[in-house]
Structures are given as C-alpha cells and as structure tokens.
C-alpha cells in the first residue's frame, strides 16, 4: 500500500475546497435575484349615481328618479318629500339600482340619502332636487261621466277650467279607446273644450274609455294639467226623435222601431225652431224658463219667466221639449212657442222618462235656420270633413 504524504493530502483538500467554492460562485452568478412583490391596489369605493344632479330645479314630476351603484350594492335608499314622508320606490333584486314608483308633486323639494357597500368599503350620497313649478293649473272634466249609459249621438267631451294655449298638445294627451274600434276625430267647440266623435252615430253596445293624461304636462305658457282623469261609458239603445214641422209631430223610434208619436207646437214665426240634429242633454222635473238668460228681457214683448215641468234639454241656446198645457189646443196645428217643442204634460213626462243624454233629436222643415254646430249640443251639424280636419291650430 502506498501512503500519500500529508502534504499532498492537504493540497488535495485545499484544491477541492476551492473547486467547491468556484462551483457555488458559478451557481450564484447564474441565478437572477428577485425583488419583493408590489402590494395590490385596494378595491375602489362603490360609486352611486343619481338621475338628477344635486340641487336640480324644474324636475318633471312624471319622470322616475333612479339610482345606480357600481362596484357595490345599495344598502339603503330613502327619498323624502317636504313633509318627511318616504316616497314609494322599488329596489332591484341584485341591489344595483333603485327607482321611484310614486308620481311626484309640483313645486316640491325632495331629499335623498343613499348608502352602498362593496369590497372597497361604503359610500354615501345625499342630494336634493325640486320639481317644476307651474304658472297655473287646469283640471280636465270628462263627459259622459264614468259608468254612464248614453245615446248613440253622445260625443266625448273634455272640458278644461282654463283656456288652453297649446290645444294640439292637449289633444295628444287625450286617448279615446272604443270596443269595437271606431274611427273618430277631435274638434274644439271653444278654447276650453274639445270633443271627439265618430263619423256616424255610435252602434248600441259600444264601450268607450277616455283617458286624459295631462298631469305633469305643459299645455302651453306654463299651464300644467292638475290631474289625470278617466271615464268608461257605454252606448245604449238607439233612440231618435224626429220633430217634423209639416206634420207638427215628434216621432220617437227605439232601435229602428217607432214607439211614440205626439203632436207638438214649434217656435212661432218670430222665434222659429232651428233645423238640424240635436243631442239630448239633461232633464228637469221642474225648471224656471227665463228669456233674459238668452238675451231677451223679461219685460219685452217676447220676454217670459215661466215655471215649466218635464223639461228635456235639446240645445244650450235654450230649446227644450217640455210640458206646455197652455198650448195643447195649438199642438199639432200651429206654432206658438218661443222656440221650444211644446207638448202635453203626459207626453212631456213620457219624453222625460224615455230619453237619455246622448239620444238624437232631429228637427226638420221649419222656417228657421240650422242649429249652430258650436252650440254645445249641435256637434252633428258640423260636416265630417270639417270635423275630421280639426281646428286645434285655429
């Protein structure tokens, strides 16, 4: 066995150590040092957006107020009216949006408070806004009234309590729905009242719904609708009364069948009853007829102030079918009235009970002119071509 001297053994150990150190150095030199990781950005706070800017003025009371949350969900939302009462609203199932369901009032300031929470924390929003302040308000009144049964000649009437500056806009806000469907058109009889009717008389049984959706709408010059209104009514039997001056009779038919003929006295030569188509209106068990209400002084030769029974209105210019016991001898023979259709008490009572608003009365063959189409009950005397063309821009 050959022994290695200690000096050579030491040299070999030293050489191995150097080689190991070099190897370790090489390994270290080939390794890219890494820096410490950058801290992640914190999630953003929830963003709450409102449909109206804070402090907004002139907000429409019709438009829903909406709220939306991003990067989170809404925890609570409360919109208070000036009295501190919460406004009705709905939250979306996922909590990301909120919408009012209550129509707001005019000229009112509302206060909103909302919070939203998300991964980034909680956000709050506080805001106020004020709805539009009208210069004036107008209420629409619908005729016929809701639930009424009326005659085949009854026009739809929407009466406003203020003159309407923008009549075309008002018409757009009125909807007439019929079952079965019927073509019709609007026509203004004055600056406060618009009518709607078909070309021909209604068919019995027709159902009509009228909606005047004017609330929150500017009808011109700052005049806003006070309230929406709706009426649903039905057309009853076809009742037509024909008053013929040649025969001096009134003949009443129901659904095409004559049910009554009665003698009558028309307006005398100085006050002839106008010809044309009339729409029956209200009825009076008793009424005082005063010529001064139609421009004829009671003290004049043609003036009168008379208590009358069983009076059924045919025109707003003062023509009625009514009881006239003083002219029974003239009825069916000669004309002696101031324009009304005089009939006996029994016949006046029958007419009172067997006609209804909207029924048709036709006067023909008198020496008078024609009932004015703008009388208020003379709508059918306006030719359909003129009616359909309308007069909203007039």
UniProtKB/TrEMBL annotation:
GO biological process, one term: regulation of cell shape
This protein's UniProt keywords: Acyltransferase, Cell membrane, Cell shape, Cell wall biogenesis/degradation, Lipoprotein, Membrane, Palmitate, Peptidoglycan synthesis, Signal, Transferase
Record's signal peptide: 1-28
Coiled coil: none
Pathway(s) annotated for this protein in UniProt: Cell wall biogenesis; peptidoglycan biosynthesis; Glycan biosynthesis
Region (Disordered), start-end ranges: 34-60
SUPFAM superfamilies assigned to the protein according to its UniProt record, in alphabetical order: L,D-transpeptidase catalytic domain-like
Pfam family, one: Big_10
GO molecular function, one term: peptidoglycan L,D-transpeptidase activity
GO cellular component: extracellular region
Domain L,D-TPase catalytic: 239-364
Location of the active site: 322, 340
Family matches, as InterPro entries: Big_10, LD-transpeptidase, LD_TPept_cat_dom, Transpep_catalytic_dom
Superkingdom of origin organism: Bacteria
PANTHER family noted in UniProt: L,D-TRANSPEPTIDASE (PTHR30582), L,D-TRANSPEPTIDASE YCIB-RELATED (PTHR30582:SF2)
Designated name of the protein: L,D-transpeptidase family protein
Organism of derivation: Lolliginicoccus lacisalsi
């Amino acid at each position: 066995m050959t022994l290695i001297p200690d000096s050579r053994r030491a040299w070999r150990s030293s050489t191995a150590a150097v080689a190991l150190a070099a190897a370790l150095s090489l390994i270290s030199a080939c390794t890219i040092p890494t820096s410490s990781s950058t801290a992640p950005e914190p999630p953003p706070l929830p963003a709450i957006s409102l449909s109206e800017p804070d402090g907004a003025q002139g907000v429409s009371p019709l438009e829903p107020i909406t709220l939306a949350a991003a990067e989170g969900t809404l925890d609570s939302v409360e919109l208070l009216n000036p009295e501190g009462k919460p406004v009705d609203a709905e939250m979306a199932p996922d909590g990301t949006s909120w919408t009012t369901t209550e129509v707001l009032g005019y000229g009112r300031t509302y206060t909103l408070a909302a919070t939203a929470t998300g991964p980034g924390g909680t956000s709050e929003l506080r805001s106020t806004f004020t709805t539009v302040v009208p210069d004036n308000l107008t209420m629409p009144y619908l005729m016929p009234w809701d639930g009424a049964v009326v005659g085949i000649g009854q026009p739809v009437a929407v009466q406003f309590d203020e003159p309407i500056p923008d009549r075309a806009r008002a018409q757009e806000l009125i909807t007439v729905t019929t079952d079965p469907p019927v073509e019709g058109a609007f026509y203004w009889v004055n600056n406060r009242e618009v009518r709607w009717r078909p070309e021909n008389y209604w068919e019995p049984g027709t159902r009509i719904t009228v909606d005047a959706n004017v609330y929150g709408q500017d009808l011109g010059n700052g005049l806003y609708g006070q309230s929406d209104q709706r009426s649903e009514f039905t057309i009853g039997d076809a009742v037509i009364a024909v008053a013929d001056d040649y025969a001096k009779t009134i003949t009443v038919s129901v659904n095409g069948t004559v049910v009554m003929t009665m003698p009558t006295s028309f307006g005398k030569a100085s006050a002839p009853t106008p010809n044309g188509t009339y729409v029956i209106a209200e009825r009076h068990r008793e009424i005082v007829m005063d010529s001064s209400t139609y421009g004829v002084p009671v003290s004049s030769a043609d003036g009168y102030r008379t208590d009358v029974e069983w009076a059924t209105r045919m025109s707003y210019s003062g023509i009625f079918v009514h009881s006239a016991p003083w002219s029974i001898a003239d009825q069916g023979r000669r004309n002696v009235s101031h324009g009304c259709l005089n009939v006996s008490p029994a016949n006046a009572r029958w007419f009172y009970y067997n006609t209804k608003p909207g029924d048709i009365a036709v006067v023909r063959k008198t020496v008078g002119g024609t009932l004015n189409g703008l009388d208020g009950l003379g709508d059918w005397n306006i030719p359909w071509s003129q009616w359909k063309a309308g007069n909203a821009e007039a």
